Amino acid sequence: MNISAPPAPDVLRVAHLHTNLTWGGGESQLLALAIRLQARGGFTVLVTPARGALYPRARRAGLRVLALEDTRAGRRQLWLDLQEFGLTLLHAHDSGSTSLGIWLRRHLGVPLILTRRIASPLRRNPLSRWKYSPRRLDAVIAISNTVRDVMISSGYPAGRILVAPSGVDVEALARIPADPDFRAAYGRDHLVGGLGRLSWKKNWMLMVRAAELLARESFPVQWVLAGDGPDRAELEMAIQRAGLAGRFHLLGFRADATRLLRQLDLLCFPSLMEGASVTVREAMALGVPVVAADAPGVVESLAGHGWIVPGDDPAALAAAVRAALENPAARQAQAAAAREFAGLHYDYEQTLAATLAAYGAVH
């Protein structure tokens, strides 16, 4: 696709469509994008369910927000409300909002862009073919080259896909201080941690198995895992069975997860299904070294500045954690290179510029 100049803020009028109820990396990225677009003078309205996690955060941030009601009457009222704004673009941010966006595109007569965040092939069933048809989507924004490649392999036209990498606020991350009190709770051991939803996709059981192997060696490491989700009970049982009750700590959901990340000696990220991990990119910007499973999106994000292991090999993960923690010089060198790379490639201003270029391509 030929990229034209980004639209000027005074003519850019975007409705961001979002249907997920939970909070995660995608919601964080959307909120950051909407805030920055509005700060630049562009007209921005966010459409999202009032009972979802994004709605109150967006309201507190001073964004214009419309509550999404998933009924026929609710959709019609949304159409009438959006018609008053003179929109130039619709931007869908999840699967559910794509169907809504297609309906609104037909009624409002403005282009529709979808941000695709997952690195899984498009399904071949009739609904998926309808939803992701190039006749209905004017362009797709992929959050990484990994996601772009998966879309192309699924048959989506390469010329209709643009990449706007998931970004981080490098400047804000640099201001997060060390917290000796947090570290003190875990003694003098090394501190390795993970952050994310407790679900099978994140592969946290691999981290538990690696912790068990290192505990048998009496290796001085404490493990923390921040997050909540459906696999919590299973993980708790596995930790107990492995005899890790005093070494592996489930912290639950943490609103200060990024601050916690800053305190780690090493981030452990065993997820197997990532389009691109914001947590990994934040760790890189913070100078926290990373050991991760070989999910293509994570491998792309790290760009050689971390330790990569097979996603089904706890012995390899344990060995990588041991190697990183036993060699401070190597750990510091990886962290410094990763911090420099993140500053050059993952600052959110670059994400914003790439998104505006995508808007310009269809505007």
What do you see in this structure?
This protein is of the alpha/beta class. It folds into 2 domains: 13-167 and 347-362, Glycogen Phosphorylase B (Rossmann fold); 171-345, Rossmann fold (3-Layer(aba) Sandwich), CATH 3.40.50. 45% of the residues lie in helices and 16% in strands. It is built from 16 helices and 13 strands. It has helices at residues 25-39, 54-60, 72-83, 95-108, 126-131, 145-153, 170-174, 180-184, 204-216, 232-241, 257-262, 278-286, 296-302, 314-326, 328-345, 348-362, and strands at 13-17, 43-48, 64-67, 89-92, 112-116, 139-142, 161-163, 190-195, 221-226, 248-252, 266-269, 290-293, 307-309. The strands form 2 sheets. The protein has a 7-stranded parallel beta sheet with strand order 3-2-1-4-5-6-7, sandwiched between helices. Helix 3 packs across helix 4. It is elongated, with a radius of gyration of 21 Å. Residues 1-6 have low confidence and may be disordered.
CATH topology of the largest domain: Rossmann fold
CATH uppermost class of the largest domain: Alpha Beta
CATH architecture of the largest domain: 3-Layer(aba) Sandwich
CATH superfamily of the largest domain: Glycogen Phosphorylase B
Assign an overall shape.
elongated
Helix content: 40-55%
Number of helices in the DSSP assignment: 16
